Amino acid sequence: MIICCLDLEGVLVPEIWIQVAKKFGIAELKLTTRDIPDYDVLMRRRIRILKENGIKLATIQKVISGIRPLPGAKQFLDLLRSKAQVIILSDTFEQFAGPLMKQLGWPVIFCNTLLVDKKGFISGYRLRQRDGKKKAVEALRTIGFEVRAAGDSYNDITMLASANQGVFFNPPSSIAREFPRFKVTRGYPELAKVLLG
């Protein structure tokens, strides 16, 4: 049986932190795992910037509530789920994901959790587990699934490498060049063909 594992941001929805950066005019918040491969370094930087600028979780959630899936993402996901099982493996947080999952028809998502202080500021984060995307794929394979995975960034590489088939979806050209073993797809019809072929 085939199971497809998809990254969320950059594959189905816009990068959340880029939208937050645009809303508040803070260029440094535009950095993602496409720019900084070390997730802990990236998150600590984000948390510091939010605190320095007085931005609380509730304010970020308001921004997220206005984000829409990428054009065609819901239809792509519906097609995929009609032919295979699908799990979204994301480094986002449960406090961010709700409005986006609703728009996508409530797919299964494995993600992380934010820690919030008494004043409502993000104070830290808790990973579901370290390198959770890779470990989820490995676990699915051990129980008999053929795993096909799609992602777009550095934090997806171990997931793609652990799958029976890993494919990029609209990655930056620099990352595609760095990891030429993964096929690059540029649209949902092409991605669906690769994942379901």
Helix/strand layout:
Layout: E1 2-6, H1 16-24, H2 39-52, H3 57-65, H4 73-83, E2 85-93, H5 94-103, E3 108-116, E4 122-126, H6 132-142, E5 146-151, H7 157-162, E6 165-169, H8 173-178, E7 183-185, H9 188-196
Parallel strand pairs: 1-2, 1-5, 2-3, 5-6, 6-7
Antiparallel strand pairs: 3-4
Helix pairs in contact: 3-5, 4-9
Walk me through this protein's architecture.
This protein is α/β, with parallel strands linked by helices. It is 43% helix and 21% strand. The chain has nine helices and seven strands. Helix 3 runs parallel beside helix 5. The longest helix is centred in the first third of the chain and has 14 residues, at 39-52. The radius of gyration is 16 Å and the shape is globular. The relative contact order is 0.18. The mean pLDDT is 94.
Give the H and E element order.
EHHHHEHEEHEHEHEH
Beta-strand percent range: 15-25%
End-to-end CA span:
13 Å
Major β-sheet profile: 7 strands, mixed
Number of domains: 2
Tally of contiguous helical segments:
9
Which class do the helix and strand fractions yield?
alpha/beta
Summarize this entry quickly:
The chain has 197 residues and is α/β, with parallel strands linked by helices. It has two domains: 2-13 and 70-196, HAD superfamily/HAD-like (Rossmann fold); 17-65, thrh gene product, domain 2 (Alpha-Beta Complex). The chain is built from nine helices and seven strands; from the N terminus they run E-H-H-H-H-E-H-E-E-H-E-H-E-H-E-H.
Q: Which key terms come to mind for this protein?
A:
197 residues; alpha/beta; Rossmann fold; thrh gene product, domain 2; 2 domains; 7-stranded mixed beta sheet; 9 helices; 43% helix; 21% strand; globular
